[in-house]
Amino acid sequence: MSVYPRGTIMQWSTDGLTNSTKVRITDHNRSEFVTGPNRIETKARMWTGTLRKNVVATKNTYSCQWDMLPTKMSMLADYDPANPTLTYSAKEIKTFYENTTGPFVVTLLFDGAATTENVMISAFSYSVVKRSGGSGNFDFANVSIELEEI
After folding, report:
1. What residue numbers bound the domain in which 118 lies?
2. DSSP assignment of 7-76, as one string?
3. What is the pTM of this model?
4. For the chain: N or C, fewer Cβ within 10 A?
5. Predicted local distance difference test score (pLDDT) of residue 2
6. Total domain count for the chain?
7. What angle do CA 46, 52, 57 make, to 5 degrees?
8. Half-sphere exposure of residue 132, counting CA atoms within 13 Å on the CB side?
9. pLDDT (0 to 100) of residue 57
10. Residue 20 falls within a domain, yes or no?
11. Which residues sit opposite 104 in a β-bridge?
12. Rounded-to-integer distance, Cα 10 and Cα 114, Å
C-alpha cells in the first residue's frame, strides 16, 4: 500500500480515456490518497491438499475522502477566481460520479512526478453534514471515493 500525502494534486479527465480535458479535484480537507494492489487470482486446493494459484493480473485501487467539503466552489481553500471552474467542489464531484459510468483517466502529481492511470469508480459515498444558513446557500458534505484501475 502506498500513501500520497496531502498536497498531491489530483486531476480527472472529463472526456473519458482521451484525457484531453482535465479538471483539478480540490485538496480542501482531503485525507491522504491511498493506493494499494488488488490481485486478480484464482486459487484452489488439489485432491492432495496442495494449494494451486493462478494470478491473472495485479491492479491498483485508489481511495480518498474529504471531510466538511463545501458544495460551493468559491468556498474552497484552493479556489482560483481567475479560473472559477478549475477545481471541483463536493457538488461537482457528486455530479461527476452520477454522470460517469465508464472509465476515465486520473493523474496524481506529487513532487514533480506524474502518475496516470485509467480507472473506474468502484465506490462512492456522499453525505451532507451541515447546511449553511443565510445568503451563502451551500452545504458541507463528507465525500469518499474509490477508483479501480481498469
Report:
1. 2-40+51-149
2. T-EEEEESSGGG--SEEEEP-TTB--EEEEEEEEEEEEE-TTS-EEEEEEEEEEEEEEEEEEEESSGGGS
3. 0.82
4. N
5. 65
6. 1
7. 150
8. 14
9. 93
10. yes
11. 119
12. 10
